[in-house]
Amino acid sequence: MIQMHKPKLLLHGCCGPCITHPFQMLQDKYDVTIYFYNPNIHPKSEYERRLQAVKDLSQRWDFPLLVGPYDVEQWFKAVRRLENEPEGGKRCGVCYRFRMEKTAEVAAVKNFNLFGITLTVSPHKKADLIHTIGQACESRFGVSYLDVDFKKKDGFKISCLLSQKEGLYRQNYCGCVFSHPSKNL
For a tag on the chain, would you pick the N or C end, based on fewer CB atoms within 10 A? Predict the structure, then answer.
């Protein structure tokens, strides 16, 4: 009998909580590798705390993890002149694109069949915008985009419950300095 291999999926994850539900949904159908590329997260101590939570989850749940560079300067260049945009505004779209393009590029270079992003698990993220960016990245990099809105069917609630069960650090802001509650980083 011929054994079929699952398609290889590079799934961008911004934090442990956002990875939980999407990973559980996808692991039976895909060979999932998580890609942590988040130069938008500030301060550096917050970045390191989120990265450690992802590393801990990777060890517990036994999934491969790739960690991209902390390209802070490049991220600030990308969002320049959008500092005063409201949360959920134009800056967020640029930030999504910045991280998704890198994910698609890495997926192409490392011969993944697909790439995706866990951001759609959040009720604060616009899935339609994320999917539009994903489709553009698919065209540009030649790697199929996995178009899933993970918040559907109580996905966000499930991710919260899984995060609590796993004792994962759960942040109180998206990640960038402009979304930080104090904005005085």
Answer: N
